[in-house]
Amino acid sequence: MRLHLGILAALTLLPLGHAWAQEIPRIKARIVSFDGKTLSVTSGTTGQNLAVGLLPTTRLMYEAKADLVAIKPGDYLGATLGKSGSGWEAEEAHLLPEMLRGVGEGFYPLPSNPDHRIVTGEVVKNDTATSQMTLAFRGSVGSDGPTCTGRAPSQGGCKGALTFALQPKASVIAIKPGDKSMLVAGKVAAISVIAGPDGHLVTPGLTVENETGGEVLNIAPKPAKPPGK
């Protein structure tokens, strides 16, 4: 399971506030070119070529491999969880930068797979000896009966905590701030897209994935033209 389809969709890198974060689609695309203002990409998500403009406020991020033992209390972390017996288990986790603290916070179902959960919050304990991680988070009151779960509202909410296991070979991906120099042909990125004032696509935020091997795209080949045409 790749978190690009889970936690990164929940953590839409958006400077417009948390209320928008659940509304913005995210595509996966390979960069064809970048002229300093507009990205030309081939999207494995939509199966077409697209032009996506950058905003002055666009957040540019990239992935880098991180060491599980380096995660410490106070870090902000997100994970996509699957059921393991009576508890939850993560195959992969994202160590998130300070600028994203509070974004996507909570414990809630993965939209594309309700049997899985997203948890995002502050690390309370990283017990590498037992492969157990505990996160504290702010959730939404009443979203799951008497417990504090759900995605955190813009204000208020409740305080919850969750302990989950990490698979023995669980990988940790650090999301780090980047710049335009990383937007080169061949790189693959998860790109949030919205319609700009003129109706053309723009991105409030994107994450380059190549550094962690997350660049697999399923782009269907274009059909060959019939002979003589």
What secondary-structure arrangement, pairings included, does this model have?
Blueprint lengths: L6 H4 L15 E9 L3 E6 L4 E19 L9 E9 L2 E10 L9 E5 L2 E15 L4 E20 L6 E20 L10 E5 L1 E2 L5 E8 L21
Parallel strand pairs: 3-12, 5-9
Antiparallel strand pairs: 1-2, 1-10, 2-3, 3-9, 4-5, 4-7, 6-7, 6-8, 7-8, 8-9, 10-12, 11-12
Description:
The chain has 229 residues and is mainly beta. It has two domains: 3-62 and 177-212, Copper binding periplasmic protein CusF (OB fold (Dihydrolipoamide Acetyltransferase, E2P), Beta Barrel); 64-175, no CATH class. 2% of the residues lie in helices and 56% in strands. It has one helix at 7-10; strands spanning 26-34, 38-43, 48-66, 76-84, 87-96, 106-110, 113-127, 132-151, 158-177, 188-192, 194-195, 201-208. The chain is globular. The model is unreliable at 1-5, 12-22 and 218-227 (pLDDT under 50).
Would you identify the regions where 5 or more consecutive residues have pLDDT less than 50?
1-5, 12-22, 218-227
Report the order of strands and helices. HEEEEEEEEEEEE
The number of domains = 2
Radius of gyration, in angstroms, nearest whole number:
19 Å
Question: Would you tell me the overall average pLDDT?
Answer: 82
Query: How helical, in percent, are the residues?
Result: under 10%
What is the number of E strands?
Answer: 12
Shape: globular
End-to-end gap: 43 Å
